Automatic annotation (TrEMBL):
<dbReference type="GO" id="GO:0016671">
    <property type="term" value="F:oxidoreductase activity, acting on a sulfur group of donors, disulfide as acceptor"/>
</dbReference>
<dbReference type="InterPro" id="IPR036249">
    <property type="entry name" value="Thioredoxin-like_sf"/>
</dbReference>
<keyword id="KW-0249">Electron transport</keyword>
<comment type="similarity">
    <text>Belongs to the thioredoxin family. Plant H-type subfamily.</text>
</comment>
<keyword id="KW-1015">Disulfide bond</keyword>
<protein>
    <recommendedName>
        <fullName>Thioredoxin domain-containing protein</fullName>
    </recommendedName>
</protein>
<feature type="domain" description="Thioredoxin">
    <location>
        <begin position="1"/>
        <end position="113"/>
    </location>
</feature>
<dbReference type="InterPro" id="IPR017937">
    <property type="entry name" value="Thioredoxin_CS"/>
</dbReference>
<dbReference type="Pfam" id="PF00085">
    <property type="entry name" value="Thioredoxin"/>
</dbReference>
<dbReference type="InterPro" id="IPR013766">
    <property type="entry name" value="Thioredoxin_domain"/>
</dbReference>
<keyword id="KW-0676">Redox-active center</keyword>
<keyword id="KW-0813">Transport</keyword>
<dbReference type="InterPro" id="IPR050620">
    <property type="entry name" value="Thioredoxin_H-type-like"/>
</dbReference>
C-alpha cells in the first residue's frame, strides 16, 4: 500500500478491489482518476492529482488506466478520459469528465471538508 499523500496506481482488478474496499472500510473520500497513457489531457492532470494527494493526505487517490483495466472502466461507465469519480462508502458523490483542473480541485476540497467536519463531530 502506498503512503498517504500519494496517488495509488491500480494495475490489476485485485489491487483495484483491495484499494476500494480499504477506502470504503475506512470511510474515506476516494478520488478515482480514470486515465489512458495515450491521452494528452490525462497527462496534463496527473501532476495536479499528485499535488492534491500531497495536500489532502486523508483522501485516497486512485489511478486506473482504462486500457489496462477495461472491466473496471466499463463497470464505472467511463466513456471519456480523463474521468474523475469522487466516492465515499460505496456511493458516487460526483463525476467530472475532462481536464477540468479548477472543478476537480473545488470538488475534492469540498467533499474532503465535509468529511473532516463529519469526522470532527463524531
Amino acid at each position: 500500500m502506498a503512503e498517504e499523500g500519494q496517488v495509488i496506481s491500480c494495475h490489476t482488478v485485485e489491487s483495484w478491489n483491495e484499494q476500494l474496499q480499504k477506502g470504503i472500510a475506512a470511510k474515506k473520500l476516494i478520488v478515482v482518476d480514470f486515465t489512458a497513457s495515450w491521452c494528452p489531457p490525462c497527462k496534463l492532470m496527473s501532476p495536479i492529482l499528485s499535488e492534491l494527494a500531497k495536500k489532502l493526505p486523508a483522501v485516497i487517490f486512485l489511478k486506473v488506466d482504462v486500457d489496462e483495466l477495461k472491466s473496471v472502466a466499463e463497470e464505472w461507465a467511463v466513456e471519456a478520459m480523463p474521468t474523475f469519480v469522487l466516492t465515499k462508502e460505496g456511493k458516487v458523490l460526483q463525476r467530472i469528465v475532462g481536464a477540468k483542473k479548477d472543478e476537480l480541485q473545488l470538488a475534492v476540497e469540498k467533499h474532503a471538508t465535509v468529511e473532516n467536519a463529519t469526522t470532527a463531530n463524531a
